[in-house]
Known about the structure:
By secondary structure, this protein is an alpha/beta fold. About 40% of the residues lie in helices and about 20% in strands. It has a seven-stranded mixed β-sheet. The chain has a seven-stranded mixed β-sheet with strand order 10-18-25-22-19-21-20, sandwiched between helices. It is elongated, with a radius of gyration of 35 Å. The relative contact order is 0.08.
Amino acid sequence: MSxxxxxxxxxxLHERDDDFLVVVQSDGDRRLxxxxxxxxxxxxxxxxxxxxxxxxxxxxxxxxxxxxxxxAADRIRISEQTGAGARDRLQATLDAYQLEAVQVRTCxxxxxxxxxxxxxxxxxxxxxxxxxxxxxxxEELDRELAYKGEFxxxxxxxxxELLYETGDLERITNxxxxxxxxxxxxxxxxxxxxxxxxxVATADLDLHPALADRLTGRFEELLPVQSLSVRNxxxxxxxxxxxxxxxxxxxxVGELAGVNRALNGKGKLLFxxxxxxLANQKHEDFEEEYGDVVDVTxxxxxxxxxxxxxxxxxxxxxxxxxxEGIDHALRTGKDMGDVGTVVIDEIHTLKEGExxxxxxxxxxxxxxxxxxxxxGAQWVYLSATVGNPEWLAQRLQARxxxxxxxxxxxERHVTFADAREKVQIENxxxxxxxxxxxxxxxxxxxxxxxxxxxxxxxxxxKLDYDSAPYHAGxxxxxxxxxxxxxxxxxxxAVVTTAALAAGVDFPASQVIFDSLAMGIEWLSVQEFExxxxxxxxxxxxDEGKVYVLxxxxxTYHNSMEMTEDEVSxxxxxxxxxxxxxxxxxxxxxxxxxxxxxxxGERAKRLNDRMIGDVPTKxxxxxxxxxxxxxxxxxxxxxxxxxxxxxxxxxxFRLLDGIxxxxxxxxxxxDEELADEEL
Length: 678
């Protein structure tokens, strides 16, 4: 031999067009790559030419060197993908030298690149009509992802998991093109759980006759969470934090306590929600259900701008309002009469930025109002999603009533698409769901959540089956018409905004997330869980389905630090956030100013019983420095700031504009621009 042979471990032989690739590997490293040609002789096939690859060229060797090479090998392997005729010729050649070879399945991509990569049934990935190794499959997937657009590591990792689970490259690349194969898109299944609770008979409840007649006429037994609440002192006036999944009957808990106490002359009911749209809906519900036995009025945040009071009757038995609407009444000294029951729906709002500290302050101020009138109000706090219910119940000084049943399983799916493709996918999903019926005889219906009213109408127009937009911009008649049509199964879908998620009460079998944003902010885990919990009702459906449509590398506002694909897996894998209120300097100053306005020298007591820790001394110092208070009384400027719910920086910008002599419209425009830049 003209050159010493490399250390030989495994010799791998793979058919090419008219010859065979020869790869020598030892200790996992490639030692030699060559090409073998065979010739026919009277004794059978034998080596005719053997060439060793050097860089981009090939170096001829004596055919005997191939024989010496395979004789020195520990193992000889013939690719299973080698054709039968070529395989027989190779085997005959090796038999002539009394050498044994084993057929193995190998990665064709690796073989074509001069690498020996054996694959098994567990590690092989189907690519076209062949099988390749996982490394090559991952490289092909990465190329597809690069072509499709920027994918974050979380999304790429999920697709890689699916690739290895399915062993089919084409199925995964089809997924990137909007394939809706449920076995591919499925992220997980949330199993149904049953929490056994002995139901309380409605006939056994100690209620005012007008309420008792109404309740027993609707149903014979309370739902589990309602039964738990009654057994834990609801009708005895005990304060409660009720945590239970969407559509389990929490709202009636508040109604039972509040309407019963109002009818019995123990003070009016305040039923409070975070959004005007929800307050309008709840006001309509109360009017429809109880309007013949109690007076119902509405108090929303808009009243602070136009305080005509034409819809607000402070003497009513039931006041339905927004947090801000009631807080405005407190800050401006309105007399709301004797309050017997306060129901705070969506109490997890406490953890949200601006809205959270304002709710925290409003609760403290409303408790002060009730105490100052000598009324012992009952407090009922409601939420579907709380990560730290025991802690929150303790801080609210309420008894925890927690019900964890999920009556139907929910399948959660993820697929990738841009904004245009999302509508096409939504159309297919809505149609597929509406064409199917549950074992209970109901068609599948869909709620599509998106992040703007304009997008609601855009999606609804492009769906083949009948659908309707549903958002806070619709009037009462329009919303009731949509609700009736959906209830009658005349609509395949409603398309609504994430902002209205808490008030959407449609018996849907499927929820689609067109967007994971609420306005210009990403959804929290709590909001996401509450929205997906709308999928599947036990009286209608066998299971719920949730589809998260993700646009890679997408944001909806330049203030968003994460992209939609990053957020999607954070939400799907995330743990429920704790509900607490965190105070920075401006938030502490705003709430302290409101408490001084409402309670004067007792403001510190109001600060001390709030959920979050308020640095009262520092806040008071700043308010004195800014001229918002004089001692522990609000100045005229301070009263104006708190009446209009201005944060300190907003107040300063408005003052600067006024002092410069700017036109009012210019001041408002500057403030809008400032808010957009935050």
